[in-house]
Design goal:
Oligomer: single chain
Structural class: mainly beta
Number of helices: 2
Shape: rod-shaped
Order of helices and strands: EEHEEEEEEEEEEEEEEEH
Radius of gyration: 40 Å
Helix content: under 10%
Number of strands: 17
Strand order of the largest sheet: 11-12-13-14-15-16-17
Strand content: 25-35%
């Protein structure tokens, strides 16, 4: 066969493992033949850079389609970025600080989330000796929503002040003898404290307030004691709270009238 320049040969774009190409054996020296399969199997099994932290695998404009590896070891801070932002899909458990995670996200050590733009953050901390949940610079809200995707109505929340000293809450607060037990007492947005609150309408004992700065102590929905903030007034069993009775005649009629005014007896 006449000599032909390589550049003049027809391109072969679909070689198979048994195809041959020439190779020079420098130990003989002699030109020999080798199959594509034998050549590929002779390549080093490890892809190692000549210089530490210098060479790239791929480029910012040329990405590998898929990579299948057992482990990835990072020698410096890991940066996941690109010209097009995408989600990171991980199938299985992810461990930070552990090589044997048993949850979707398993962190051994402290865990912090920070917003450097708004200057706020919170952390889960185990290094303090106890289990601490801390927040910084802003108020912290624990909220419950009706929608599964955090939409709908914010039914209740518990807020802790980050800039000021306060704790505030929205919704009914129930205190039970155990997680799923009976309600021992309840505080609701109407300003009531209900003891043995078995339901919304039936209870044994209630302390509540009204718009007239009065405190009512109820039993079975009957106002047995009414204490008013106005001049220290007092009433019983639904009677209008009155001021302290003075100048009451120490007679049966006088004492009877005073007790009726207080609501302690009926006329």
């Amino acid at each position: 066969m006449a000599d032909t320049k390589i550049s003049s040969l027809t391109a072969y774009t679909t070689p198979i493992n048994t195809d041959l190409f020439p190779i020079v054996d420098i130990t003989t020296p002699a030109t020999k033949k080798i199959t594509v399969s034998s050549f590929l199997s002779s390549l080093p099994t490890s892809l190692i850079s000549d210089t530490d932290s210098t060479d790239d695998l791929g480029s910012s404009s040329k990405y590998w389609a898929n990579g299948y590896v057992d482990k990835i070891f990072l020698n410096a801070t890991a940066t996941l970025a690109g010209t097009t932002a995408g989600a990171i899909h991980i199938v299985g458990n992810v461990g930070i600080g552990t090589s044997t995670p048993d949850q979707n996200l398993h962190v051994v050590g402290n865990f912090m989330i920070e917003d450097t733009v708004a200057a706020k953050g919170y952390r889960f901390r185990t290094s303090g000796g106890d289990l601490d949940f801390d927040f910084a610079a802003k108020d912290m809200y624990f909220s419950g929503y009706t929608g599964a995707d955090f939409t709908g109505t914010q039914k209740q929340y518990l807020a802790f002040g980050g800039e000021y000293d306060f704790v505030s809450a929205k919704g009914n607060w129930e205190f039970k003898d155990r997680a799923t037990g009976a309600v021992v007492y309840q505080m609701n947005p109407d300003g009531n404290v209900i003891f043995n609150a078995n339901s919304a309408t039936t209870h044994d004992f209630t302390v509540k307030t009204d718009v007239y700065d009065a405190v009512f102590i109820d039993a079975s929905n009957d106002s047995i004691v009414v204490m008013s903030n106005a001049s220290g007034k007092l009433g019983f069993h639904g009677a209008t709270a009155i001021a302290k009775q003075t100048g009451v005649a120490v007679t049966a009629a006088g004492i009877h009238a005073a007790l009726v005014s207080l609501g302690l007896i009926a006329a």
